[in-house]
Structures are given as C-alpha cells and as structure tokens.
Description:
The chain is 76% helix and 0% strand.
Amino acid sequence: MSATFATLVENVRDCSTEEKIELKSVLERALIEERRRGIKENGRRSLEELKRGKLKCSRSIGELKKSLIG
Length: 70
C-alpha cells in the first residue's frame, strides 16, 4: 500500500457519510472473512495433528484438565 496509515485516515475523514458507512461495511466483512480463514486454518492443522497422533480427543473433563496443565 502506497499511502501511510495517517494519510489513509485523513482520506477517510474527507469522505461523505455514505462513503464512511460503506467503508465500515467493507471493513467489517473483511474482518469476518479473515476470522473465517483463521478458523479454517486452525481446523486444518488440528486434523493434521489428529491424523499424526499428536492431537488427543477426550470426553473426560479430568483428562482435558491434565492435558492443559501438562
């Protein structure tokens, strides 16, 4: 990106109210999509670990506590 953050902020301040509302919507959708990609990546890594035997699944609260404590 060629514009600095400060320049970007100034440009946004110069926008109309309608443009600011649209920009807010675009940013919110972009953030949601980033979170979705992160969740998908975490799920993919977890499945890989499960297949390699590095991820242990359990329904026991006691086992979960032990795995978190170490």
